[in-house]
């Protein structure tokens, strides 16, 4: 058995079209289709912001005083 993952687009006509890789021809095959509608990246980003906004309001992150930088030799 071989697993092939394809990303494709379903058009306005509702038809899913895909092509098998070269080398797989004239054979019987069992095909399993897993259907997962992806949201646009912008929608995902907005959902992430809405889900995490204010999550640390009661426990804010504090940044302690930073130690001084190391003094390094100049590059010649």
Report on this structure.
The model has no long low-confidence stretch (mean pLDDT 82). The protein is mainly alpha-helical and 76 residues long. The chain has one domain. It is elongated and about 70 Å long. Helix content is 16%, strand content 0%.
Number of domains: 1
Order of SSEs: H
Strand content: under 5%
Query: Helix count?
Result: 1
Overall residue-averaged pLDDT value:
82
The residue fraction in helices comes out at 10-25%
Summarize the structure in short.
This protein has one domain (1-59).
Which secondary structure elements does this structure contain, and how are they paired or packed?
Layout: H1 41-52
List key phrases describing it.
76 residues, single chain, mainly alpha
């Amino acid at each position: 058995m071989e697993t092939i993952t394809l990303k494709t687009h379903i058009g306005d006509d509702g038809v899913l079209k895909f092509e098998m890789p070269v080398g797989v021809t004239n054979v019987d095959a069992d095909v399993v289709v897993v259907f997962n509608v992806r949201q646009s990246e912008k929608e995902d980003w907005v959902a992430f912001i809405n889900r995490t906004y204010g999550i640390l309001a009661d426990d804010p992150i504090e940044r302690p005083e930073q130690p001084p930088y190391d003094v390094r030799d100049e590059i010649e």
